Amino acid sequence: MRQGRVRLPGRHAAGPESNHPMPIMQDSRDADMLGRRTDGSTVRRPLSPHLQVYDMLQMSSAMSIAGRITGVAWSVGVLLLVWWLVAAAAGPRAFAQVQWFLGSWLGLLILVGMTGAAWFHTLNGIRHLAWDAGHGYEIPTMYRSGWTVLIATAVLTVLTWLVAIIAWA
Question: In angstroms, rounded to a whole number, what is the distance separating the alpha carbons of residues 58 and 116?
Answer without folding.
Answer: 21
